[in-house]
């Protein structure tokens, strides 16, 4: 009590605070805070993805989307997506079958809100996107993690899924093409996943890289962003109007596992350069998406205790940002994003090699 006024009765939910401690965004902010302002080199962002520019600018300048749109997305965008997806289906989708969200964060919130009920649980992949855990906690939905198998191209441990599931399990999350690990599952493996889910009587949440029809994890996206979807989809091929069509919607447009990234050879550059750095190992060359998980070999380094310390020191000494695996449930792994220009990618990986050589155990 202060000056005779009663104490505030509001109290934060400690459980939610704990659940949100480890997120991609919070870790990214922590790493950015450790950059050396005196380093004259440009920062190389190998920890997060790109964004769209020209298509959004054109949509905003058209003044056709200056409005409060419907919560499910404006009709031209939903119609364009429905028409595009219908090309590969034996039936035609309606715009009413499409629900647009402002990035994957809102998509996860909508899905978990629908699934949540007292006593229910959901199965999540490890490594995986940490926001599922935080949002599930908010919805009083229990989470259980099953392993992905790096030595088998990050395939789902189907036996692990069966062992975790019970009568209260409502869904399993499958990420394909994979983020953060960069895999693309075969048709045969996806069929086995579907058969397992059917046997268990649970829903499959297909959290695909191209499944979030929006532009990253921004908290606010103007209506013009959704207005830019239709013209891009009608192109039917890679558009230079996107910084990296290998990401999000652009992957859906091209049906190319790496889109623009494949054209620039980014995946090849990334996997090739990683082989030159003894302290990290890539179990499988990325086949889709924009990132790859690599194993950190701490035994070859001096004075670095874990993946978080590695990333903090790397940011401070080399102005390179990569994300620690702890943010995805994989301690002492790293996520490296290769959705940057080839020159920057080579420069960034070269700096990681120099960092290793400076900290290598003698």
UniProtKB/TrEMBL annotation:
Transmembrane segments: none annotated. Residues 50-256, 280-341 form the Aminotransferase class I/classII large domain. It comes from the Eukaryota. Keywords: Pyridoxal phosphate. The modification N6-(pyridoxal phosphate)lysine is found at residue 240. Its cofactor is pyridoxal 5'-phosphate. It holds the Pfam family Aminotran_1_2. InterPro entries: Aminotransferase_I/II_large (IPR004839), PyrdxlP-dep_Trfase (IPR015424), PyrdxlP-dep_Trfase_major (IPR015421), PyrdxlP-dep_Trfase_small (IPR015422), TyrNic_aminoTrfase (IPR005958). Belongs to the class-I pyridoxal-phosphate-dependent aminotransferase family. This is Aminotransferase class I/classII large domain-containing protein. It comes from Eucalyptus globulus.
């Amino acid at each position: 009590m202060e000056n005779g006024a009663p104490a505030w009765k509001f109290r934060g939910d400690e459980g939610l605070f704990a659940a949100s401690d480890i997120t991609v965004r919070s870790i990214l902010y922590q790493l950015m805070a450790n950059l050396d302002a005196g380093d004259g080199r440009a920062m190389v962002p190998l920890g997060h993805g790109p964004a769209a520019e020209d298509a959004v600018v054109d949509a905003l300048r058209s003044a056709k989307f200056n409005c409060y749109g419907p919560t499910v997305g404006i009709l031209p965008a939903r119609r364009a997506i429905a028409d595009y997806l219908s090309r590969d289906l034996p039936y035609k989708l309606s715009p009413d079958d499409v629900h647009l969200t402002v990035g994957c964060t809102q998509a996860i919130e909508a899905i978990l809100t629908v699934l949540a009920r007292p006593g229910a649980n959901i199965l999540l992949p490890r490594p995986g996107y940490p926001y599922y855990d935080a949002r599930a906690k908010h919805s009083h939905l229990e989470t259980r993690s099953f392993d992905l198998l790096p030595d088998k191209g990050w395939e789902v441990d189907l036996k692990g899924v069966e062992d975790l599931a019970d009568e209260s399990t409502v869904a399993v999350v499958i990420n394909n093409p994979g983020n953060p690990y960069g895999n693309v599952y075969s048709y045969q493996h996806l069929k086995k996943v579907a058969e397992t889910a059917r046997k268990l009587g649970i829903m499959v949440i297909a959290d695909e890289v191209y499944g979030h029809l929006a532009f990253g994890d921004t908290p606010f996206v103007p209506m013009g962003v959704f207005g830019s979807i239709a013209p891009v989809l009608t192109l039917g091929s890679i558009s230079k109007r996107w910084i990296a069509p290998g990401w999000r919607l652009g992957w859906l447009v091209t049906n190319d596992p790496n889109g623009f990234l494949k054209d620039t050879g980014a995946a090849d550059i990334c996997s090739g350069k990683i082989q030159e750095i003894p302290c990290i190992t890539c179990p499988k060359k990325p086949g889709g998406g924009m990132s790859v998980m690599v194993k950190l070999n701490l035994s070859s380094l001096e004075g670095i205790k874990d993946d978080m310390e590695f990333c903090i020191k790397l940011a401070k000494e080399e102005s390179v940002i990569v994300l620690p695996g702890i943010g995805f449930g994989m301690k002492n792994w790293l996520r490296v994003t290769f959705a940057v220009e080839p020159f920057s990618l080579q420069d960034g990986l070269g700096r990681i090699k120099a960092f290793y050589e400076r900290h290598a155990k003698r």
